[in-house]
Amino acid sequence: MTDPTRPHADPIEPARGPDGKWILTEEGIARDAEASRLRSEGKSYRQIGRELGCDVATAHLAVQRAIATVVAEPATAALHFELERLDAELRSLDDLYGREISTEVLLEATARIMAAITAELEVLRGEKAPVVRFDPRTHGVTTIGKPQPLEEAS
Q1: 147 contacts: CB under 8 Å, gap ≥ 6
Q2: 127 HSE (CA, 13 A, CB side)
Q3: How far is residue 4's CA from residue 10's CA, in Å, rounded to a whole number?
Q4: Smallest Cα–Cα separation from 35: which of 23, 26, 47?
Q5: Four-residue CA torsion sign, 82, 83, 88, 89
Q6: Which of 2, 45, 50, 82 pairs as cysteine with 59 (C-beta 3.0–4.6 A)?
Q7: How is 63-103 classified by DSSP, letter by letter?
Q8: Which residue(s) pair with 23 in the sheet?
Q9: What's the whole-model pTM score?
Q10: Burial, 78: exposed, middle or buried (Cβ in 10 Å; 0-12, 13-18, 19+)?
Q11: What are the backbone dihedrals phi and psi of residue 7, each rounded to the nearest 5 degrees, phi first?
């Protein structure tokens, strides 16, 4: 099962670099991808281990490495994009900084933040938000937590 020319015992484990740290080889990346593909077909880690010639724990680690690699690359780009968008939203409140805190300033900041959240929800849900936002006070329900009739909340 183990290739004697490889510097490590398990054929699916990454190799060690000159500094002693684990590194993934092209062969290891391909095996991790294969382990992930087998898992996506519904195979157990035991079955994956048998097919790839490794134990259950190593098969599990291979799948986890593949998932982390797949998720990390686009997730990093998406994270930077979202952080830029959040920064832009915060900059939209710049004119309120330095002003004395008042009901008017707090209502304005809240309205802007709620508008930004509503716009995000429209994108996520793929539909337009209602013209009038839900106001728990006008519907006689609690304003904090899961809305429930006020008489039940007390």
Answers
A1: 136, 139, 141
A2: 4
A3: 10
A4: 47
A5: positive
A6: 45
A7: HHHHHHHHHHHHHHHHHHHHHHHHHHHHHTTGGGTTSPP-H
A8: 15
A9: 0.43
A10: exposed
A11: -80, 10
What tokens does 76 get? Answer: 């990093």
Residue found by looking up tokens 């952080």 in the block: 83
Beta strand 22-23 pairing with 15-16? antiparallel
Per-residue model confidence as pLDDT tens for the chain (154 residues): 444 444 444 555 556 778 877 677 888 888 898 998 999 888 888 999 999 999 999 999 999 988 887 766 667 777 788 788 878 888 889 999 899 999 999 999 999 998 888 888 888 788 999 998 888 888 888 888 887 888 776 6
Structure tokens at 28: 């290891």
Determine the residue type at 141: V
Structure tokens at 46: 């035991």
**Which structure tokens are listed for 30?**
């391909």
> What single-letter amino acid sits at 63?
V
